[in-house]
Amino acid sequence: MESGSGLITFVTDRWKGAVAAVIGLLALSAVIAGYSAWNSSKEVNAGVLLRKAVSRLEANSQTGQDTTKQEEGVRSLQEVMSRYAQSAAAVEATLRLGTLYYTGGKYDEARSVYTAYLSKNPRGRIAFSAGIGVGDTYLAQRNYAKAVDTYSRLIEQFSQEPLLPEAHLHLARAYLGMNRLKDAGAVYEKLVAAHPNTGWARSAQGELYRLSLTSR
After folding, report:
1. How much is the pLDDT for 38?
2. What pLDDT does residue 36 have?
3. Apex 30 CA angle, 192 and 14, nearest 5
4. Are 150 and 130 a contacting pair, CB within 8 Å?
C-alpha cells in the first residue's frame, strides 16, 4: 500500500507542474485559426487590449511580484473576455487567465474562468481545453471523484477530438489519486493500443511500468 501511495504522489505532483503548458498547447491551433479571421475594428481593439494585458503580466514576471501590474493585467484580460467575448483575443484571454490562476494555486478561480467559457461556448474552439482545465483544478485539489467525472464526460462529448488522449492520461491520473490502480492501468492500456508509437503511448507505457512495480 505504501508503494502504491508513493506512486500516486509521484505521478500527481509531477503532473501538476506541466498542466499549464499542456492546456496552452491543446488550444494553440484553435487560437491561431481564430486570429486569421480578425478583420473588424472590434477584434483589432480586442487584440490591442490583450497585448496590453500580456505586457503587464510579463513585466510582473520579470521584475518580481508586482501586485499592481498583475491586478492590471488580470483586469485587462477580464475586460477582453467581457467586451469582446466572440473574438479570438477572448479565447486567448480565457486560457491565459485560467492558467494564471491555476499556476498561482487559485483553483476555484481558474475553474470559474473555464466553466464561464463553457457555459457560453459548450462546443467552442477551446471547449475541450477548458474542460481539461476544469478537471485539472479538481485534480489539483485532490477532489478525484469530480476529476474522474469531468474527464469521463469530456471523453464522451469529444470522442472525435484529435487530442483526446490527453483526457485519457488525465483520467488515469485521477484514478491513481483514488488508488484505483486497476482502472488507471486499463486506461493506460487502452491508450497504448489506440495510439501506438506516439508520445501519449510512451507516457502510458511508462506509467504502466511503474504500476507493475507496485504489484510485485
Report:
1. 44
2. 47
3. 45
4. no
Task: Dump the DSSP string for 157-209.
Answer: HTTT-TTHHHHHHHHHHHHHHTT-HHHHHHHHHHHHHHSTTSHHHHHHHHHHH
- Which residues have C-beta within 8 Å of that of residue 216, sequence separation ≥ 6? none
DSSP label at 198? S
> Measured between alpha carbons, how far is 189 from 170 in angstroms, rounded to an integer?
14
Non-local CB neighbours of 87 within 8 Å, separated by 6+ positions = 34, 38, 42, 43, 46, 47, 80
CA dihedral 71, 130, 206, 190 (to 10 degrees): 170
88-120 pLDDT tens trace = 999 999 999 999 999 999 999 999 999 999 999
User: Please, what are the domains in the chain?
Assistant: 2-214 (1.25.40.10)
> What is the number of H-type helices and E-type strands within the chain?
11, 0
- Among 20-34, 61-75, 111-125, the range scoring the smallest mean pLDDT is 20-34
CB neighbour list of residue 200: distance below 8 Å, 6 or more residues apart: 165, 166, 168, 169, 191
Q: Residue 17: what pLDDT?
A: 54
